[in-house]
Design goal:
The chain is built from 14 helices and 10 strands. The protein is α/β, with parallel strands linked by helices. The relative contact order is 0.16.
């Protein structure tokens, strides 16, 4: 073979090799996953951090995180517009009661991380009788928490107070400041902000020790069946994120500050405090008693929920597979 022919042969081999490498790379491109959080708050930290710390990428996932507020997020999950929904479970449970083919695969925060904050002059829960209390939306999770909290003090949220919808936590804060409501339900960080302005936390709902389910990840059963490895890798990334939250407070606070647009160090610290430590599960779970409690709480507004069995709403096999693969 001539030198010229040999060179052409070598060049062709290199081109074919390069093409093969590129083709192999394309075959191993990250798998796209559409994940929605149904609100903006500190409890979204595990998702934000999983992306910023590269845990999704490490699992070969290209996660598009989409904020879809409230009920529309459940509709998006049912229709397939999103693959996974990270949210308080009550809207999903209601949808399942209505025939939606959805299931929960993991839960992270399983505590009532809310406080009832009132205007100056109101020092205890009983003084809310006859007053206006602000929640996000009627029959949503904030309404659910208010019902439970007032009931523990012998009060009826439908009779003893006037509950009105005032929107998200920033809107509820403003409604309290401008006197539109006498009290509202907020997370500890917003409560701290109001306390600095002279308002008073009259109840830390966490102290009531209700069995609850917190932020849960839900999926269509079809997705779990057809794309199970993606769900496993997603949960694995969340586990890594949860560990990072506990081990690296400063990085976690930077992620919180960026996504919540916070500058006040005390507010950032408070956001981190109630989304880490004892408030954060060491490993995702699916609390059966909390789910039963959530189902029971929905029966007055979603009568069909009384036919639901907590066990049937949850698929624990994905958590088991993630746990089995851990060192």
């Amino acid at each position: 073979m001539s030198c010229s022919a040999s060179r052409r042969s070598t060049i062709l081999a290199l081109v074919l090799s390069l093409f093969g490498t590129l083709n192999s790379s394309s075959l191993h491109a990250a798998d796209k996953l559409r994940v929605s959080n149904c609100y903006i708050g500190g409890a979204i930290l595990p998702l934000w951090l999983a992306k910023d710390a590269g845990f999704y990428a490490r699992e070969g996932l290209d996660v598009e995180q989409i904020w879809i507020q409230g009920n529309p997020s459940t509709s998006a999950l049912i229709s397939g517009e999103i693959d996974l929904l990270y949210c308080i479970p009550h809207n999903v449970i209601g949808a399942i009661a209505g025939g939606a083919d959805l299931q929960f695969i993991a839960s992270i925060y399983n505590r009532m991380q809310y406080r009832i904050v009132a205007a100056p002059g109101i020092d205890k829960v009983e003084q809310l009788k006859g007053k206006v209390l602000g929640i996000a939306r009627i029959h949503d999770v904030s309404h659910f928490y208010v019902r439970l909290a007032l009931k523990s003090f012998g009060m009826n949220a439908d009779q003893d107070v006037r509950v009105i919808s005032t929107g998200g936590q920033a809107d509820r804060t403003l409604a309290l400041k401008n006197g539109r409501v006498a009290a509202t339900i907020l997370n500890p960080a917003y409560a701290l902000t109001l306390e600095k302005d002279g308002f008073k936390t009259i109840l830390d709902i966490e102290t009531l020790n209700f069995p609850v389910v917190g932020n849960m990840t839900a999926a269509r059963r079809q997705f779990i069946k057809e794309k199970r490895p993606l769900a496993v890798r997603f949960v694995r990334a969340l586990v890594a994120s949860m560990k990072k939250i506990q081990d690296d407070p400063e990085f976690s606070k930077k992620v919180l500050a960026k996504n919540l647009r916070l500058q006040d160090k005390a507010i950032i610290d408070e956001n981190y405090r109630f989304n880490s430590g004892k408030f954060l599960e060491p490993f995702p779970t699916l609390p059966l008693e909390g789910m039963r409690y959530a189902i029971d709480s929905l029966v007055p507004t979603v009568p069909a929920a009384k036919h639901l069995k907590a066990e049937a709403l949850m698929d624990s096999s994905i958590l088991a597979e993630v746990a089995k693969g851990m060192p």
